[in-house]
Amino acid sequence: MAASSSSFSSTILSSPSPLNKSHLSSLSSKLPHNICLPVPRQHRRRVPPVFVVLSMNSKPTILVSEKLGDAGLDLLKTFANVDCSYNLSPEELCTKISLCDALIVRSGTKVSREVFESSGGRLKVVGRAGVGIDNVDLAAATEHGCLVVNAPTANTVAAAEHGIALLTAMARNVAQADASIKAGKWQRNKYVGVSLVGKTLAVMGFGKVGTEVARRAKGLGMHIIAHDPYAPADRAHAIGVDLVSFDEAIATADFITLHMPLTPATSKILNDENFAKMKKGVRIVNVARGGVIDEDALVRALDAGIVAQAALDVFTVEPPPKDSKLVNHENVTVTPHLGASTTEAQEGVAIEIAEAVVGALRGELAATAVNAPMVPSEVLTELKPYIILAEKLGRLAVQLVAGGSGVKTVKVTYTSARAPDDLDTRLLRAMVTKGLIEPISSVFVNLVNADFTAKQRGIRISEERVILDGSPQKPLEAIRVQIANVESRFASAISELGEIKVEGRVKDGIPRLTKVGDFGVDVSLEGNIILCRQVDQPGMIGTVGSILGDENVNVSFMSVSRTVRRKQAIMTLGVDEKPSKEALKKIGDIPAVEEFVFLAL
Ligand SMILES: NC(=O)c1ccc[n+]([C@@H]2O[C@H](COP(=O)([O-])OP(=O)(O)OC[C@H]3O[C@@H](n4cnc5c(N)ncnc54)[C@H](O)[C@@H]3O)[C@@H](O)[C@H]2O)c1
Ligand SMILES: O=C(O)[C@H](O)COP(=O)(O)O
């Protein structure tokens, strides 16, 4: 395969010379008994999860801080210790959280920065049993490497049905009439309502819930328009809805129903200025988030008769103050955030979030991750050996650093026959970052916080593609990691360009180191590695092997590659145990050894 475009010349070095089988068997009789020659390691292959969260033997603890459906709780209990502690104060939550690996909340628990700080690094997953994640401090979660997942689909219909319930109840004064008759009155003239048929309903936010509300309202004979700057117009057209501008929506609607998330852009989007643009007598439904309405402005608009009625399920502060003018307004119908509260939705949400949290704790990538890239499972399966390769190369490269200006400028090069848009490298970059940072810090790095952690430590990681001609069946041919402006503990790891350079490939599903500096090598990236530059002369393997054998250090593989016959060679040894300082010194003292380094993978 030839590189078709590259800013790095990517000439593959002539094949290194790993020991071949006959060479090895003739050697084996001369080696100490505990030196194993290359053994198939497939059975020992481990795929590290992307969110390595649990030690092998621990049963995780999951704190459930709000009521969750039984089916979800049962699922959680098969995997973890489940602590259902409802109505915790913020202080109690902060105290408990240090004993928990995961936390499951609904909208009633504020997962603040303090919660992440109090967890001492143990909290690895926050599961939001529902859609809105505005009660979770996402920035803090990301900085602490904590994955946030939600359950975005199971309560959609429930929320849409509640929107329709509020719409119809409001139009026919159901709540007010109910209260009146229970107070002993019979006020048939007071509670004359308005009809929905033929009226224009503006759906603000045409996502999952908004779409379902629109479908149902069409069935009531309403004319539906929608405003959503990010929704595809063809999806709206397909169900007979026109997407219009914000101003057109609010100016032409008889009814407005809110279905957008609470974001800085939508906060108080219905305010004095926008109420003034509405048709006099407009009616408003909110099952999204209280914060999208300026509640004081809504009271003014109600008092001025601009807004005839409002029906609200959500409030800026929940529960709202007892003396809230808005809640107590006679033209306002309220429910206590019940949009998702149907038996069916809560069972669905509980299962959806339990599966997501358990999956994340097992280290799988969550399809509903909120603060990490979502990688489809088929892509993940294909990339798995390359994920390990990326991390191991990062680990190896950073351990080769001996000084200089520190690990600041790192370049990762992917050699692939795939088109750039057919290879998502975010996962690979995160794993290189993990490999680079974890050996030199106590920071836990994962896909969630990799970029943040690198940035925080002043490490600039650039990526480059070398596009190969040929069949793109494999996602990658090679990954190369280069660290600039550093000195190395193993001078041979410095390339001609003056950078530490390591390169690896996946062969038969096993990640292998294939280049160190400008030397070709070929060893499996497992356990610990000794890199040794030596004069190419007979007896070296036996001498080094004997030193390790005397120490009861098991050699799992070896490869020798040389540049010029009888001149210089790089010997690479895989060892299961870390040799003692004395043994390493003895290796260094062998006259033909020019330099060597021990690296833990
Ligand atoms: N009351 C409840 O119990 C309840 C239940 C479920 C969902 N919700 C809330 O309903 C809202 C919608 O949920 P969803 O599942 O449909 O979410 P969604 O992400 O599927 O849809 C939200 C839509 O809002 C759009 N949007 C974003 N910014 C906008 C803006 N400035 N103007 C107009 N549209 C904008 C997005 O493009 C998206 O299409 C969320 O706030 C969610 O928290 C409330
Ligand atoms: O965002 C949501 O999913 C809804 O607001 C439901 O919130 P809840 O789980 O607190 O009912």
Automatic annotation (TrEMBL):
Principal subcellular localisation of the protein: plastid
Pfam families listed in its UniProt record: 2-Hacid_dh, 2-Hacid_dh_C, ACT, PGDH_inter
Gene Ontology cellular component annotations, sorted alphabetically: chloroplast stroma
Location within or outside the cell: Plastid, Chloroplast
ACT domain span: 529-601
Catalytic activity: (2R)-3-phosphoglycerate + NAD(+) = 3-phosphooxypyruvate + NADH + H(+)
Gene3D superfamilies: 3.30.70.260, D-3-phosphoglycerate dehydrogenase, domain 3, NAD(P)-binding Rossmann-like Domain
SMART domains for the chain: AdoHcyase_NAD
An MF annotation (GO) of this entry: phosphoglycerate dehydrogenase activity
Pathway field: Amino-acid biosynthesis; L-serine biosynthesis; L-serine from 3-phospho-D-glycerate: step 1/3
SUPFAM superfamilies, per database record: ACT-like, Formate/glycerate dehydrogenase catalytic domain-like, NAD(P)-binding Rossmann-fold domains, Serine metabolism enzymes domain
E.C. code: 1.1.1.95
GO BP terms in the entry: L-serine biosynthetic process
Key words of the record: Amino-acid biosynthesis, Chloroplast, NAD, Oxidoreductase, Plastid, Serine biosynthesis, Transit peptide
Protein family: Belongs to the D-isomer specific 2-hydroxyacid dehydrogenase family.
Annotated protein name in UniProt: D-3-phosphoglycerate dehydrogenase
Organism listed in the record: Ambrosia artemisiifolia (Common ragweed)
Taxonomic classification: Eukaryota, Viridiplantae, Streptophyta, Embryophyta, Tracheophyta
